UniProtKB/TrEMBL annotation, chain A:
A UniProt-annotated Pfam family: TctB
Organism annotation: Litchfieldella qijiaojingensis
Protein name from the UniProt record: Membrane protein
Entry keyword set: Membrane, Transmembrane, Transmembrane helix
InterPro entries the UniProt entry points to: DUF1468
DUF1468 domain location: 8-140
Transmembrane parts of this sequence: 40-58, 70-88, 94-110, 117-139
TrEMBL record, chain B:
Name of this chain's protein: Tripartite tricarboxylate transporter TctA
Domain named DUF112: residues: 18-440
Alphabetical UniProt keywords: Membrane, Transmembrane, Transmembrane helix
Domain of life: Bacteria
InterPro entries: DUF112_TM
Pfam family, one: TctA
Transmembrane segments: 12-37, 43-68, 109-132, 138-158, 170-191, 203-223, 260-281, 323-344, 356-376, 388-408, 415-445, 465-489
Amino acid sequence: MKLAADRWLGVFLIGLAAFVAVQAVRLEVPFSYDPVGPKAFPLILSLLLAALSLVLVFKPGANGHWPNRALAVKLLAVLGVLLLYALLFTRLGFVAMSLLAITALARIFAASWGKALLTGVLMAMGSYFLFTHGLGISLPGGYWLDGLV
Amino acid sequence: MFDFLIQGFGVALSPLNLGLAFLGALLGTLFGALPGIGPINGIAILMPLAYTLGLPAESALILLAGIYTGAEYGGRMSSILLNVPGDAGAVMTTLDGHPLAKKGLAGPALGLSAVSSFVGATIAILGLTLFAPLLAEVAVMFGPAEFFALMVFAFASMSVMMGKDPTKTAIGAVLGVLIGTIGVDSGTGVLRYTFGMPELYDGIDFVVMIIGLFAISEILLMLEHANRKDSDGDIPPLGRVFVSLKEVLYCKGAMLRSGLIGFIIGVLPGTGASVAGAVSYTTEKRLSDKEGTFGTGDMRGLAAPEAANNASAAGSFVPMLTLGIPGSGTTAVLLGALMLYNITPGPMMFSERPEVAGGLIASLYIGNLVLLALNLPLAGVFARVLTIPRWVLVPGIAILAFVGVYQLHSDLTAIYLMLIIGVFGYLLRKLGFSLAPVILGYVLGGLMEQNLRRALSISGGDVEILWRSGISLGLWIAAAALLILPWLLPKLISKLQSSSKPLEQVEDD
């Protein structure tokens, strides 16, 4: 079963190589003095990729352990938190959004609610002051905090 | 001939740069000691923040080099104390390091690892000082065709030496090069693989690439151990804190030999700390393990890989500084960092930007001393870092990654790209790929194409130019030999088994 993953990967990569090659051929190149142009290099790479993928299809190697369902759920949860963090980063501001994201991540990594909240509060505030005042990075929407302090 | 070094010490000894070398060493050791964060992750996470300081190129490089060598140091702590190697280079350190800790000698083991790292790194930095300018003088004669052949050789050597599966290493490198082709083609202005997205016109930003590939995929990978304790127990008591002079002298042979081995292996492109550690350990075992104590907590078995992997870390600066070809994944990251400052490392750097080349080498000397001074007395403090729970560590990495990418252009597209690349990196690691070839391909790919096209422009499209000169022909043959030998050698060995004397040497190489 484990070996099969590499076979599928090989087939997928051959598809990718074909895609890369087709895209390269379709490039419209204006006249230039460059005898090679932008097409050749990606074409060579796609050939190389296809050849190596064929090796993978016929001689698959070992894989890592794939996540079970519980782990897969957590994996999606982490990705979801990170995506939400990015989506709401500018709207909610750095401090508020970081607090939520840190607390959520800490919970997923098996911290109790109390510990997770404490980490969230301390890390969000601490990193805000470190980044803005220490490193001079401007972060979105944290201005209300300056008014409070 | 050593003018550059004198000038370099002038640069490195300025109060700012001295402070940065110190800061880099401290941060590097801390990040290297964090569970699950190897040197390459440490640099990836800290690099974007180093940019926000607005430092001149040589200062930034001094900071990053400090982080690099510091992280190599810090990574050994979890190997010795917890039997968990922080990265591939530290695997050999666990063999004798952890048994020593179990015997109640954790403190002396950490001290010895600091001293042997210092000795190994010093040998390699001396080698770097001697050989880098010489190599640069030879490399000045390289034209585009020679550089192209050199990169082919580097990729060939990497495929054979790096990682377990040569096919996957090569595929990883090709994928990295392909990612590097995204964006405007510098020769003709044609857009490649941008799919109409203006954000991709400049290509995928280097910082986005390394943070996504390393930091984000590491977070996802850490989930598997979220509930599991890292170690088979608590951190063993350190015992006495200092290693005695007698113990150090007992290991001096192992350190010196391994430092030399590590340097030579580090200079070869694509062969990093893991190979250096393995070769030096087995060599030392064969030479000095008379009583069969290796593997049960022999101090020489700890000193050898520690000297070797730090020597190889410094040795990998030789090809990076003189040829612009990084010797390891981590130096590939450093090379990318230099290119962000519009400095392309290569033979001209020693003549055109001696303050950068010399300053970096001088700061390696200084950083090495700083590290020894920090690590001997503070081992106990750094060991505490190992007990930081993952529910603090992971959000911390996430915040550093987000802010590091966000501050580039104050733009969220970069963050989405980072997440996509993170998932890509996670899948690759799950499929048995190592990420170092991907980043090497990404960094070198652009240079490779430029040199290929420049060479063919010179010859008017005649491909023969690629192997016309002696140097490039030699590199092509060496590359071919590297790829063919692993297939041929086993057959040859079985054929010549009876008269096998000379072949033993071949194996040792």
